[in-house]
Every structure is written in C-alpha cells, then in structure tokens.
Design brief:
With 259 residues, this protein is α/β, with parallel strands linked by helices. It has a single domain, classed as Rossmann fold, CATH 3.40.50.1820. Helix content is 34%, strand content 17%. Strand 4, helix 4 and strand 5 form a beta-alpha-beta unit.
C-alpha cells in the first residue's frame, strides 16, 4: 500500500562535530512522521543526528494498523535506536502521545543507553468508558471514529488516520500495562510537555508519569496555546527551543575535534 503524502520517515546524518549526539523522534498512534519531522529538522540545526521513523501500519490506510501490534512498533523504534547507537555516543528519545509511551519503554529496556526523554502529551492509560470493553469490541468492530489532527493552528496536518483501528488500540493498551508495571525502571532525565487543551490524552497521564518514574531530573512544561498534536501547533517553537536546551544541558560526551 502506497504511503500517504508526508508520511515518509525522515533522517539527518550529521557530518559536524556534534554528530555523536543522536535524537530518535517517535510519532503517535494513528499518526505519522509528519507530526515530528518539523521538530526533527529544527533539532538537526544543532548538528545532531536525527531519526524520525514511520511505525508499522501507519501512514498508509487504517486497516493496515489492525495487522500490527505494539511489539511491531517497538521493534521499529528499537531498530532506529540501534542505528543511531552505531555512530552516536549519546542518544535522546523524543515522543508524541504513543510515541512517548514507546520512549518510556525504550528507557525501561535500555537504561543508561538512553541519555534523556522528551515527552509531548504522552499516554499510559485512557479514561474513556469503553476502554474496558476493548478486548471484546475489537473482535466485533474494526474501527471507531478517529482522533487525528487535534490541532488548534489552522492548516496543519499530521497525516493521520480518520479512524481508530480497534485491534491496534487493544494492543496499545497492552503496551501501557507493561509500561506501568515497569515504570520505576525509568531513571533518565525527563522533560514533559503537556497541552492544557488536549482532547485526546487526559492530563492524568502526565501526572501519573511524573509521580511514578524514578528520575530525579524531571520537569513539566505547560503549553497554553496548543491541542494534542502540539508539535505542529502554536507552541511548536517552545517545544523546539526548550527541548534543544534540555538536550544541550545533558550532553556529557564532548566532540573529538582532533580528527
């Protein structure tokens, strides 16, 4: 199935003195790299190496997502992590929504290999009343109406699906369960952005994460002018600037200027 326009993965292989710093950027559930690429391009101006992968089942048609599971999505981000690690001394993970979920899972599984997390409206649970019925509903109904493009700024498009594939949603819930069980394993520095007007992920997610990670270096930044896909919204520049400062402040391996 051909990819939707704008859903292609994006990468930047830096050749500068700071190419040893890698940033893996993960889009959200039913979204695409389009929601992360502008942010990635902004961070690439610092000379860091960037990866913005397309998660399996995303960026084509919603039916494709029901053929994938959270393990498939995780395998893809882990593959990109390994790719960055082949040339980088430090790697930071940035994630939007479910991308934040996958970032947390990477942090749990890879420990000190991850230098820090930047999470934008991350999710580890849902307060929707139908959530408890997903195991049953997902076997009977293929999809619900979608959640894409929750963006206040006109003219923006995350190139997401207009439907929520329910088998994939059920798998996402299983990912959340695993993350919550191992949340104390997250010890890395955490920068968390939260939109005050998010119509997709409830505020309780951010609070739960900040309350339960073992990280001592953690900060929450509130976004006053953006909806869920804040990376494409009015506060995108705030995210880009503060996240860059966060990464710069936690770089411990200096470039080799003699080679």
């Amino acid at each position: 199935m051909p990819l939707a326009h704008g859903a292609q993965p994006w990468s930047f292989d830096s050749q500068g003195p700071d190419a040893h710093i890698g940033v893996l950027m993960i889009h959200g559930f039913t979204g695409s790299p389009a929601s992360m690429t502008p942010w990635g391009k902004s961070l690439s101006t610092y000379g860091w190496s960037i990866r913005v992968p397309r998660l399996p089942g995303h960026g084509s048609r919603w039916q494709d997502m029901n053929l994938t599971t959270w393990e498939d999505w995780y395998a893809e981000v882990e593959r990109n992590l390994r790719e960055l690690q082949a040339t980088c001394d430090q790697v930071f993970i940035c994630g939007l929504s479910m991308g934040g979920s996958l970032a947390l899972r990477l942090a749990q599984q890879h420990g000190e290999e991850i230098s820090g997390l930047v999470l934008v409206n991350p999710a580890v649970h849902s307060e929707r009343p139908e959530r408890h019925l997903l195991p049953i509903i997902s076997k009977m109904i293929k999809a619900f109406p979608g959640i894409s493009n929750d963006i206040a700024k006109p003219g923006q498009d995350e190139v997401g699906y207009t439907k929520i594939p329910l088998r994939a949603a059920h798998s996402l819930a299983q990912l959340w369960k695993n993350i919550k069980a191992d949340i104390a394993e997250v010890t890395q520095p955490v920068l968390l952005f939260r939109s005050l007007a998010d119509h997709v992920v409830e505020a309780s997610n951010a609070q739960w994460i900040l309350d339960h990670v073992s990280s001592t270096d953690k900060e929450e930044v509130l976004l006053e002018n953006s909806f869920h896909v804040a990376t494409l919204d009015y506060d995108a520049e705030i995210i880009e600037t503060i996240s860059a400062d966060f990464i710069k402040g936690r770089i411990t391996v200096k470039p080799d200027l003699t080679s």
